[in-house]
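Re: folding output
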Amino acid sequence: MDEKDRWMVQLVIAEKPSVAKDIARVLKAGTSRSGYLEGEGYIVSWTVGHLCNIAAPEEQNKDWHRWRMSTLPMLPDRFKLTILPNTGKQFHILKRLLKNPNISRVIAATDAGREGELIFRRVYQAAGCNKPIMRLWLSSMTDEAIRSAFSALRPGGEFRHLAAASYARAESDWLVGMNETRAFTLKCGGELVTIGRVQTPVLAMLVKRRREIENFVPRTFWEIEALFEKQQTAFKAVWHAPPTFKETRIFESEQAERIHRKCAGHPAVVDGVRQKKGMRRPPLLYDLTSLQRTCNSRFGFAAKKTLSIAQALYDGKKAITYPRTDSQYISKDVFKDIARHFVAIRDRYPELIARLRQTYTADDRKYRVVNDGKVSDHHAIIPTTRAMAPGALDRDQQSVYDLICRRFTAAFLPAAELLSTEVWFIINQEKFKSSGSVFRQLGWLEAEPWAIRNDVVLPVLRQGESLQVKELNRLEKQTKAPPHYTDASLLRAMETAGRQVEDEELAAAMKERGLGTPATRAAIIEALLEKKRRYAARQGKSIVPTDKGVEVVRIVHELFPDALSPDLTGEWEAKLAQIEKGRLRYADFMQEIRAYVATSIAHIKQARLQYDKTLIPDKNAVSDPASSGTVLGRCPLCSGDVKETSKAYSCANWQKTGCRFAIWKNSFGGRIATRDAVELLQEGRTKKKLTLKSNRTKKQYKARLQLADGKVRPLFDAVPQKRTPGQGEP
């Protein structure tokens, strides 16, 4: 503290009690009070996350208490805040401290990011405080890092753009969520249909993938594979089609048989050998999203679980730097002190650190992860300078910490050097290819050995050499539908606004236009899985939209498809980032959001809607749909009207003629939706396969349904008969 500031009593506001206690210990503020600690000229308190939130619509305007289309859109001139009831006691403690005349300035020590800034600013605003603000910017929670950060406090005014972006994010979410949720809910008879600025486009991506899978028609194809052995090394080569020799799949059974017969019994002659030196560059460091993806792929952790573990490693164990970062780089200043971070993990990874010493240089230009231009609020996640004692971490913490340490080491090890080999064979005028590689130097792959794919090792082969074919196989395969999203693939899709991008540097360039932020993506996924929504469910590692989720996306697409657009939401995220950098005005962004909300509500009000009431019940309905509902089709037995009842789609003539025709909603262990019943009545079968369950084995299966002779039965696709060995051979 400067000499001129020694008279000041400073209030430090952290985000969690545990963080406040660590800060208080370093500041020697050791006297415990109710809701804060004090001593040595400091009072240290905490917020327990959000203490204030934007007030509900009815608190903004009493006319918005009832859900009516006539009150939409709701566009407050100024957003009122409300104190969250569960944490009201802590807010009033902070308010009293902020009003205390003995406190001359306030130090914001909440999480150093957009949400942390919002948490602090809302409390400061709701308390009516106008005292000067200083900002504590922490990248790790070690005592040394805390002391260093306090020696470099920054004026709160430097973070006004970050604060503006945080307010814009929260207020735009409120405007879109509150208005569109009310509008869609009212259109759906009062059953809650929640809409979110980011949540709904993510749900749309899940639904699009489900539809791709359900509509996918597999094609059978064949590949011809030759097996060889030389120098006790077994390897294979695959037939390639002329004239480009790029395609290996054969879609005609007769052609596959003909090629197989032509090549059977003939030797292979090496037609060409091409070797090429190559390398695999060290990977970028972890940001939160890439860490979540890796943890999901390797350990099956949900994104939320990885975030929770990383947060505990940060503020509980002080083992890693700030985890809620979107950067995969470190600054030159961090690099200058990098040796101390390696010393902290030396005892855990002695062989890796020994390898590092052989090639390490103090020249930061050698390492692509050292880039000041790619570091904004926080650098990448790396281990801190605090060594972790054996047994200090539980099993899951150890797994995540190990990934971070290994990636940290890998980024500073040399590139992996390899020799790629491509060999072409001729078997009775047909061309086969075998590819493999030999690693001449593993380099960074020593730190992440799992990154080595199943690389084929080939023996030494020379042009013109003849080899005996040990086996020649005609393999029958099928094209596969794209897989359902997992946490890992959904996080990548959110990061790139739904675009399929595998290149890590291209993906990094698109981050500003992604859906959500590293800190919020896990919560968005969990929101879709919540019981009150039931828009998606986990099936093993997969995240699959429910029938209700599919229906919600269909409704939104029918009423206002822009609400599903990942591109539009990605543009908004990019503009929030521009506000944060001072390149876009908060007022201009909010004007755009208000115009969008007004347009969307106008469209929804004018649109007509039919929806599946089995998935989204009409809470305003009071009569039996059988007596007043829409006619779905004609009864196949008596040509009467078929209408929907609470349990079935049945003939309305049953009271007059006793007709017993009905399509029961719960049939074959599955649920027949209204659209399925319409297809049965009009087409005689459903277009898509339904998920059903066997009464005998209790196992699920997929099948279409067909209507024949007034009865509904499963309809299974014809299965081609497999040929017995030798059948049809000449």
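--- second protein (sequence, then structure) ---
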Amino acid sequence: MATERQQGSDPYEVAATDTPHDRRGRLINIIAVTGLTLLLAGVYLGTLHTGLSTGDSAELHYMCALLGVCHPPGYALEVLVGKLFTLLPFGPSIAWRINFMQAVCGVIGCLALYGAVRRITGQTLPGIVAATTLAFSTIYWMHCVIAEVYAFYGMFLLLGLYAAARFVLSDRAVWLLLAAVALGICVGARPSEVTVLPAFVGLWLAYRRRVRLGWRRLGAAAVLFVLPFAFNVGYVFVRENPELLHARDDALRDELLGLTPLESELTVSGRLRAALSYSIGLEAAGREQFTKFDAERLRWDLDKYAWLLSGRGAFGDRWSEDELRADPALASRQMQQGFGTSVGGLGLLLALIALVRVRRRWGMVLLGLGFFVGNLAYYLYMHPVDNLDFTIPGLVGLAILVGVGMAAGDGGAVRGGRLAFQAACLAVPVFLLVTNMRYMDPRTPDDEQFQRICAKLKETRLPERPVILSLYRGANLFRYVYWLERERSDVHVLIVRERYGPAELGKLINELRRRGDDILISMGVARRFGLDRQLSRQTRPELRDVGLFQVYPSRKP
């Protein structure tokens, strides 16, 4: 920071030496890293989701424990690391430990961002402001306290950013290769992040006279970039086996419906092609909730993103309950991930300062701008239901600009106004922390009620060898509870996909009845097909209380 340099020295010469070598600079950096780690760890652990969830989170909970294959592209590395976290000797449950893993990844990612901004600007405080601006933005924060993929692979994106900064400042090939590995891990599992890779060209352009990008270096980096994806394909090839518990029930469902042959019946080349297609994510990309450019959705998405970045989310939701009741169409736009504030209006002002006062930091400005624009292009072209979850790379870009903007503005501030300017910059993450905290409280009445239902689900008696038909979100919860908590591998949980109609459901029920299985249908499936009232009359009360209905019971429990 300004006090770390001798007066009149060039900040870029300091940055180019890789780190301030004086004892005072090292001490300040150690204090900053320690304080940042303790702050983020305290905030994330204080708001950590305490237990089970549904959907992708519950899937990750049990897939990590079973070394399974998650939804496309599989997330092999996260599953393997998650398996290590399930073995930790502390924590009340496997679900808590996987949630804890996300907090660890979130902290590491923010520390990497701090390191990158600090080294490029030669100042400590801008690095802290950039890191905490990202850390306390709701989109990033929410994924650091519950099992998901965004914080884990976001960590590798940020580690790649840090390694790239070290490379352009030192010209050491090892940092280029580490950047290639980290970015390869991120993009290999999150193909949407490929849109931000051109941003690194901007950073290289600013330092192209200092670094060498020969064919040997580029070739080695390209190989290391591809290796994580190859590893993911190999993992899916080996582990997507119907003989394993995590894959057994999906294979059974497809067999009953006559959709696809069992994996064991495919040739080696057929399995390899299937693993490649799965790892690329073609199945996920073809789902209905992923739609390409649509003008109406574009307006909705811009409205949500603008609300999120403006800071107005700190004072309430985009639409009131009265507005939602008056216009049911708004309910589809009131997405859960759109709450709170990310970056905020003051943060955007600092980003604008970075663009206006570029000076010789234009490489970092191009990097941050490239992250935001590249991610925005994906966001506006693809319209998944949860698309604001995909904006973390864009928020990283804005956080970079926030840090650079503070460094640029601080350098131009008059002596008497420097302290006031720094206080205004620190107000950016403080505002986010204070106003977003209420959105991150894991002990809400709804969540407490959900955890009580989960506890009751663990105690509910089920017949021997039952088959539960459930929608995706609930199915993952049932699998976690009965396969891991109850250790009942005899319980089969078949996912009824969103695209299935009455014909597919009827065929599944008839085939299972022919097998002599006791059939249970989740409340979500029963309501979707209008069966809840009919099935409620023949279901035990304790099953109804946990959202399960009996169908054609063939044995008494």
